Amino acid sequence: MTTQVTDHRGGVWSIAVPIPDNPLGHTLVHLLETDRGPVLIDTGWDDPDSWDTLVAGVTACGYAVADLHGVLITHHHPDHHGLSAKVREASGAWIAMHAADTAVVRRTREAEPGRWLDYLLAKLTAAGAPEDHLTPLREARTAGRGRRLPGRRAALPDRGIEPGELLDLPGRRLRALWTPGHTPGHVCLHLEERHPAPETAGAAGGRGRLFSGDHLLPGITPHIGLYEDPDDRESTDPLGDYLDSLERVGRLAPAEVLPAHQHAFTDAEGRVGELIAHHEERLSKLRALLREPRTLWQLAVAMEWNRPWDRIPYGSRNIAVSEAEAHLRRLVKLGHAERVPGSDPATYRAV
Ligand SMILES: [Zn+2]
Ligand SMILES: [Zn+2]
């Protein structure tokens, strides 16, 4: 096991905690020193190797896990929130998360196992998914198999993260920014302290640093799908939320971004511009595809992905349909697409 710890100066460190069998490689867990002890931003995937790496990383920063005062979670995904329960158990640290993601954690923990499959089946049927795609889900439902995700054992947070407010961290100025889109309760955390390295930050140093979670990454476009709430009545617009959140982060223009994957980077505004342009291009391509009426499934199949549709694995196709639906909802909200009246499964066309 190699521990990759980076000293970002000014009482900020990052620990690269591995995510098993995942092309992302690792989660960058950040450690922030405060007058009451170190606080973690995210914790990493719940796996013995990842735990050992986290423990070794905290030690390399000059602390013991038992010293940890608190845990701030950017969003509920298992590569960020996975080890929170273990950290709390080992240290007594509190765990804080935005209420909208805490609601997801609670729902996942309490859901009857078949509930997710029922939701997925209903959703894919409405999208016009072919029979051969639905059959495995029906079989799993009949066999009584549920959704087995690490999220079912995830820790319930002890406190909320209030957007816009300074967090109660003695000796630090850290403000929460609600950035929904990737998840409904995603937050970025803005360290409103002058950047400690003038040579990196330049004139922007006074605008501090941003812990961006999965919201803003240097070389990856975060997945924007649906919020996957079985009670969602098609009212949410995650892509719209995401683009709004991106613009707000761009206006903040922090001197440096400390994301939860890949590496730290400068020029947040430039990266925000690239991501907005990417989604705008995607939306206009989708609108072009809808000159011919299509179901959501047909739209997903016709869209551009990182590989041809027939090479996309089964589970990833479901994720692709969610992403297609997020884009479609945005087009409908903007008045650029509409449902063909009376169509079943629902068919959409450009307006
Ligand atoms: Zn995520
Ligand atoms: Zn992530």
From TrEMBL:
Keyword DNA-binding: no
Entry superkingdom: Bacteria
Pfam families: Lactamase_B (PF00753)
Keywords: Hydrolase
Listed GO MF terms: hydrolase activity
Domain Metallo-beta-lactamase: 26-261
Signal peptide stretch: none
InterPro entries: Metallo-B-lactamas, RibonucZ/Hydroxyglut_hydro, Sec-metab_biosynth-thioest
Protein name, as recorded: Hydrolase
Source organism per UniProt: Streptomyces lydicus
